Amino acid sequence: MTHLIVIHKIQDYASWKQVFDEHETTRADAGSKGGSLYRKSDDPNDIVLTFEWDSRENAEAFLKSDNLREIMEKAGVVGQPEFIFVDKLEDFQS
């Protein structure tokens, strides 16, 4: 399992969220297993997403796709998103 963190700024959360939700099937078909959505407490238009992906190769192909570029533009993503692949080391308690 591959873990991916995506950080980007958006113009408007409600508009972005609608496009993001509509894109769920496309992400799943590309290998996404779901994830979590966060936004910065001091700026609701700074979004952080964590994804689990079936393989790094599929995640990288998705990130390079014209479809994703078009969807991000439609959703109002501002600037260049940051994509970070991470390896889970362990779960921990407080």
Outline the low-pLDDT stretches: none
Tally of strands: 4
Biggest sheet, spatial arrangement of strands: 2-3-1-4
CATH topology: Alpha-Beta Plaits
The structure class reads alpha+beta
Mean pLDDT, to the nearest integer, reads 96
Give the terminus-to-terminus CA distance: 25 Å
How much β-strand is present in the residues?
35-45%
Describe the largest sheet: 4 strands, antiparallel
Helical stretch count?
Answer: 4
Topology order in helix (H) and strand (E) letters: EHHEEHHE
Number of domains: 1
CATH class, named Alpha Beta
Rg of Cα set: 13 Å
What characteristic shape results from the CA principal axes?
A: globular
Mind telling me which CATH architecture this is? 2-Layer Sandwich
What would your notes on this structure say?
With 94 residues, the chain is α+β, with helices and mostly antiparallel strands. The chain has one domain: Alpha-Beta Plaits, CATH 3.30.70.100. A 4-stranded antiparallel beta sheet has the order 2-3-1-4. Strand 2 and strand 3 form a beta hairpin. Helix 1 packs antiparallel against helix 4.
Pick out its properties.
94 residues; alpha+beta; Alpha-Beta Plaits; four-stranded antiparallel β-sheet; 4 strands; 41% strand
Short description:
The chain is an alpha+beta fold and 94 residues long.
List the helices and strands and how they pair.
Elements: E1 2-10, H1 13-22, H2 24-29, E2 32-40, E3 43-53, H3 56-63, H4 66-75, E4 77-86
Helix pairs in contact: 1-4
